[in-house]
């Protein structure tokens, strides 16, 4: 006789209570994706350098109208609170201190992948599309390219452009912000 295994999915509130109770610490590299706690890959030095470079490049442009958020949560639903490497958010005077930003606050999310490109491409990018994030970039360090996903739908993004070294890229909602792929990849 086989045993039927039933998975227990968590809500964002339960996820936060686990942290408050000390079950999860600030040092635990996990995020909540569709109700499941997912261990995040360790951050290598190249990955960290690209995230810092993106923060620098985006912050130069951002000014007062945009908040650059690095490796902090986005509340997408009652069961998903990912932590993209970089997010460009609509400006809010409290800098989202009263609540994590939701999909309506996001202009762009960026995932940087050194070893996690397949995971990001198959799970996180479609998650962002399902929740209406207008644009997502996947900086694939092994392939040395930026995948630009636009036009979200419940089935995923309807548009993909791959930018290589020698090209420049701009977020659709912030066209004056232009960065060179070479600058991002280093």
Describe this structure in words.
There is one protein chain. The chain contains four helices and ten strands, in the order H-E-E-H-E-E-E-H-E-E-E-E-E-H. With 186 residues, it is an alpha+beta fold. Strands 3-4-5-6-7-8 form a six-stranded mixed beta sheet. It has a two-stranded antiparallel sheet with strand order 1-2. The longest helix has 18 residues, at 45-62. The protein is globular.
Topology at a glance:
Layout: H1 12-20, E1 30-33, E2 36-39, H2 45-62, E3 66-70, E4 86-90, E5 106-113, H3 117-130, E6 135-140, E7 145-153, E8 156-164, E9 168-169, E10 179-180, H4 181-185
List SSEs in N-to-C order: HEEHEEEHEEEEEH
Strand order of the largest sheet: 3-4-5-6-7-8
**Got a strand count?**
10
Distance between the termini: 57 Å
Overall pLDDT level: 92
- CA-based shape: globular
Number of helices: 4
Q: TL;DR of this structure?
A:
The chain has 186 residues and is an alpha+beta fold. Helices cover 25% and strands 29% of the residues.
Give structural attributes.
alpha+beta, 4 helices, six-stranded mixed β-sheet, two-stranded antiparallel ribbon, 186 residues
